[in-house]
């Protein structure tokens, strides 16, 4: 143990005064040995000796004996330093071996390969599992490098192990493929770590430990799984191909000219109801319809002579005697790739199109029936439209042909019918002068859409005129109409109506409402804002609901430049839309129309409310609209309107 002190004693007893560099060089030698092993330590010893010779100065004057003494001193220093390096390296190696001997039971029982390398990266210990991965006995590893045991190891792995030894890094999951002496390839995963003299992270590194996991079996299983997946994919593809052929009624065949025989696939035998393919040409001909043999023989001869592909539809006879329609596609098989080579056979596919042709015939028949049905529908529609036009003319005939002139004002009405409906509604409008110069107005709707409703509409409108001429009080007219409906018409006959009497001289309006959509009154437009539209709402019920019901009249003044709008429910009723929302929309629309720049006529009002309310959908019910406009004193009013 005192051997490392010998070089220090040599340095301390030297006659030179500069002994400190010698101690520094000695420390460098020891460090090189600890870090790099025996080889770097010996090299450091030689370098330190040379450096000391150059550094230490002997006293002057020098003699030949002094020179001999210097070289002797250097030789002794080099010898002792080299012996110290060897001793220190052996000490480190023994420490590593003693440390590993404690772990022998675990080392040998480990299921993975474990190997220990010294500072020269030579094997000092391997367990049985590692020996199995390399294919060599454990004793064949000791004292050898990794490249000597496994010749095909990569230089990169050796460099990484050297880095573990010098830098103390850890190598993780390095994949390695080796070939054993028996020629077997094995896939390994290597993890390496530094082995230190003490357990702490600051201890001197005395070697490298490696853990080797044999992944060969896992790789083989993964390869087998991939191969199995490929085989399963091929099987699935083959199954799908066979299923596609079965569904499409497809099958293959070949004709060998040299052997003078036909080869049928299993699918073709199945199509023909055979357990095995025909063995002779006579058996093949027995499966072809007699009327087709001559044509098929000529076609086959032409295909052999020209080498051109062919397609033909023919009939074949199944084993159970059923005749099947077959579509045959084929082409020539030549002796080589040369397109001019000799034709040695034919091959192709056969498709059973019997069911497809039957379906096609049924489709043609169904198409004929559909065309006939469409023709019948067109004729019926033409008849219905003609009847609709007659009914519409009948309904329009019950509406007034003209409207009275309004002194100092204007009046316009319009009727819109649903184009695609075959029935007619019970909507009406009416306006006529009374003997005292006032104008009677009414808009109503008989509940229902049929000829009966249209007939009742004509009657009620006429009776309404009679009652108004006899006593032009709107509430009284509606009371008498209600009594007439409940006593003189079948139960359930319901009518909604608004009756008004307008005095053009003073702009006074008396009105009554029986369950009808509320009229709207728009004043003259303000200079900077849309006018507020008044809704003439009441709670009086529909006509025909109660025989004892009476209706009252209300009076208001139509302002100068104001517009009164009467309408039926078809203008505001929409499927899935709240009626109150639609009525608010109509009031807003009327306010915008009358406040437009320039003069606004009753024609503008009628056109604006109908186009605006019907812009977001089709007309669902007949509509009657009547607009009354009171002029402004001194203004030039537009001419009175006429019915649409």
TL;DR?
This protein is an alpha+beta fold and 644 residues long.
> Could you give the count of β-strands?
20
Number of helical segments with 4 or more residues: 17
What does the main sheet amount to? 5 strands, antiparallel
Biggest β-sheet: strands ordered side by side in the sheet: 2-1-5-4-3
Residue fraction in strands: 15-25%
Report low-confidence residues grouped into runs of 5 or more: 634-644
Mean pLDDT, nearest integer?
Answer: 80
Content-based structural category: alpha+beta
Q: Any idea what the shape is? A: elongated
Share of helix, binned: 40-55%
Distance separating the two termini = 131 Å
What is the radius of gyration computed over CA atoms, rounded to a whole number of angstroms?
Answer: 58 Å
Characteristic terms for this protein:
644 residues; alpha+beta; 5-stranded antiparallel beta sheet; 43% helix; disordered C terminus
Walkthrough of the structure:
The chain contains 17 helices and 20 strands. It is an alpha+beta fold and 644 residues long. A five-stranded antiparallel β-sheet has the order 2-1-5-4-3. Helix 1 packs antiparallel against helix 4 (64-102), helix 2 (20-36) runs antiparallel to helix 3 (38-55) and helix 3 (38-55) runs antiparallel to helix 4. Residues 634-644 have low confidence and may be disordered.
Secondary structure topology:
Blueprint: H1 5-12, H2 20-36, H3 38-55, H4 64-102, H5 104-109, E1 113-117, E2 123-126, H6 128-134, H7 146-149, H8 155-167, E3 171-179, E4 185-196, E5 205-214, H9 216-247, E6 250-256, E7 261-264, H10 266-271, H11 281-286, H12 293-306, E8 310-317, E9 323-334, E10 343-352, H13 354-397, E11 409-416, E12 426-433, E13 439-446, H14 451-470, H15 474-488, E14 495-503, E15 508-514, E16 520-522, E17 534-535, E18 554-557, E19 563-567, H16 579-594, H17 602-613, E20 623-630
Antiparallel strand pairs: 1-2, 1-5, 3-4, 4-5, 6-7, 6-10, 8-9, 9-10, 11-20, 12-13, 13-14, 14-15, 15-18, 16-17, 16-19, 19-20
Helix pairs in contact: 1-4, 2-3, 2-4, 3-4, 14-15, 16-17
């Amino acid at each position: 143990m005192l051997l490392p002190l010998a070089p220090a004693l040599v340095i301390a007893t030297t006659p030179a005064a500069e002994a400190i560099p010698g101690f520094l060089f000695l420390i460098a030698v020891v460090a090189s040995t600890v870090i790099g092993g025996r080889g770097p330590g010996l090299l450091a010893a030689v370098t330190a000796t040379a450096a000391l010779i150059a550094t230490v100065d002997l006293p002057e004057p020098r003699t030949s004996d002094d020179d001999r003494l210097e070289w002797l001193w250097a030789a002794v220093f080099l010898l002792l330093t080299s012996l110290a390096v060897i001793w220190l390296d052996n000490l480190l190696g023994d420490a590593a071996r003693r440390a590993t001997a404690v772990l022998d039971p675990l080392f040998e029982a480990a299921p993975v390969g474990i190997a220990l390398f010294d500072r020269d990266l030579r094997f000092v210990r391997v367990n049985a599992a590692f020996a199995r991965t390399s294919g060599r006995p454990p004793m064949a590893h000791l004292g050898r490098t990794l490249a000597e045991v496994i010749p095909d190891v990569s230089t990169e792995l050796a460099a990484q192990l050297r880095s573990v030894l010098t830098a103390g890094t850890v190598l993780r999951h390095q994949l390695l493929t080796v070939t054993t002496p028996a020629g077997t390839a094995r896939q390994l995963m290597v993890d390496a770590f530094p082995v230190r003299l003490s357990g702490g992270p600051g201890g001197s590194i005395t070697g490298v430990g490696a853990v080797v996991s044999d992944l060969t079996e896992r790789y083989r299983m993964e390869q087998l799984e991939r191969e199995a997946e490929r085989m399963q994919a091929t099987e699935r593809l083959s199954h799908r191909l066979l299923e596609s052929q079965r569904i499409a009624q497809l099958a293959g065949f070949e004709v060998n000219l040299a052997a003078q025989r036909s080869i049928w696939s299993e699918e073709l035998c199945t199509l023909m109801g055979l357990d095995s393919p025909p063995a002779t040409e006579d058996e093949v001909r027995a499966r072809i319809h007699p009327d087709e043999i001559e044509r098929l023989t000529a076609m086959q001869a032409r295909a052999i002579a020209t080498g051109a592909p062919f397609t033909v539809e023919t009939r074949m006879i199944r084993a159970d005697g059923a005749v099947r329609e077959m579509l045959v596609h084929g082409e020539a098989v030549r002796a080589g790739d040369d397109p001019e080579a000799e034709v040695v056979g034919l091959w192709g596919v056969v498709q059973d199109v019997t069911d497809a042709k039957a379906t096609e015939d049924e489709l043609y028949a169904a198409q004929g029936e559909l065309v006939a049905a469409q023709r019948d529908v067109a004729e019926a529609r033409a008849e219905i439209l003609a009847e609709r036009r007659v009914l519409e003319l009948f309904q329009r005939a019950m509406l007034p042909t003209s409207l009275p002139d309004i002194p100092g004002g204007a009046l316009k009405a319009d009727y819109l019918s649903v184009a695609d409906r075959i029935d007619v509604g019970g909507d009406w409008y009416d306006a006529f002068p009374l003997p005292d110069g006032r104008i009677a107005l009414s808009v109503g709707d008989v509940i229902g859409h049929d000829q009966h409703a249209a007939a009742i509409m004509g009657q009620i409108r006429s009776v309404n005129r009679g009652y108004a001429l006899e006593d032009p009080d709107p509430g009284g007219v509606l009371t008498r109409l209600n009594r007439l409906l409940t006593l003189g018409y079948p139960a359930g006959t319901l009518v909604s109506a608004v009756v008004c009497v307008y005095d053009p001289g003073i702009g006074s309006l008396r009105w009554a409402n029986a369950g009808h959509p509320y009229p709207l009154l728009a004043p003259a437009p303000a200079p900077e804002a849309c006018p507020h539209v008044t809704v003439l709402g009441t709670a009086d019920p529909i006509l025909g609901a109660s025989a004892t019901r009476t209706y009252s009249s209300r009076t208001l003044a139509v302002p100068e430049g104001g517009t009164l709008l009467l309408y039926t429910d078809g203008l505001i009723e929409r499927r899935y839309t709240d009626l109150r929302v639609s009525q608010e929309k109509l009031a807003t629309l009327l306010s915008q129309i009358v406040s437009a720049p320039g003069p606004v006529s009753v024609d503008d009002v009628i056109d604006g409310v109908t186009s605006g309310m019907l812009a977001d959908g089709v007309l669902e019910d007949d509509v009657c609209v009547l607009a009354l406009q009171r002029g402004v004193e001194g203004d030039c009013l537009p001419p009175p309107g006429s019915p649409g």
